[in-house]
Amino acid sequence: MTWEDLGAGARAEVDGWLARGHVIRAVKAVRDDFDGSPGRERPGIHAALDVVEARRQLLGAPAPWEPTAPPDAEGLVAAVAGLPFRVGAIEAVWDGDTFGWFVVLLAVAAEPCAEHRLAVLRGGGDLRLFNGAVPPWPEAVEADRVGRELADRLGVPFHFASPRTPDDAAPRWWEGG
């Protein structure tokens, strides 16, 4: 399967998702473009991912898993000061992609329900699991340290529902978790 096998609408949708760093949604768009009729069988996830990754590289789109610069509380205080909402808490949440787990440090508000990504922390791909390099998850340790320091400086709570184990379904701060 190649990029040229996609319809124009699917190509535009994939490019849109990639511009926003949503690789998995781009893969879904590729697979959804095929209706299952003879000659239009839906490609497998790996084939779709290969097409999406080749396109991402061609466009020079950012990889969704690229970490931000190492966060420091001082710089993050300045970032929070410019937000259009009053921060109710600092939160660390797990997220993942086809390359592995990472932690996102967020400024969150309950009213209005809003969040702003402050930093993405990644200690490496999930190949670490096979060579015994984790746990502990260094990105979680760093997110916990920086998140607590930032929350203390802002006078708001810090929330990290699953600091020891990746869990992208852990309860969020505004859920009372």
TrEMBL record:
It comes from the Bacteria. This is Uncharacterized protein.
